[in-house]
Amino acid sequence: MSKKYYLTERERERERERERERERERERERERERERERERERERERERERERGEREREREREREREERDLRERERETRQREREREREREIEREREREREREIEIEREREREIEREREREREREREREREREREREINMKY
C-alpha cells in the first residue's frame, strides 16, 4: 500500500469518524430539542390545568353567589309575606274593632229607644190615671 493511499484512507476514516461524531451531535441536539418540546408541552398542560382549575373555581364561586342570591330573595319574599300578613291581621283587628264600636252604638240606640218607649208607656199610664181621676171626680 502506498503511503499516499494510506494517508488518504486514514483521512477518509477520520472524515467518516468526524461525520459520525457530527451525526451523534445532531442526534443529541435533536434529543435535547425533543426534551425541550416535551417540557414546553408539560408547561402548556400545567397552564391548561391551572386555567381549568381557575374556571372551575370561578364556576363554583358563581354557583355560590347564585345560591346566596336565591336564599336572600327567598328570605326577602318570606319577610314581605310575613309583613303583608301582619298588615292584614292589623286590618282585620281594626275591622273587628269598628264592628264592635258599631254594635255598641246600635245597642246604645236600642237602649235609648227602649227608655223612650218606657217613658211613653209611663206617660200613657199617667194619662190613664188622670182620666180615671177625672171620671171619678165627675161622678162626685
Automatic annotation (TrEMBL):
Domain of life assignment: Eukaryota
Region (Disordered): 1-140
Name of this chain's protein: Uncharacterized protein
Source organism (scientific name): Dreissena polymorpha (Zebra mussel)
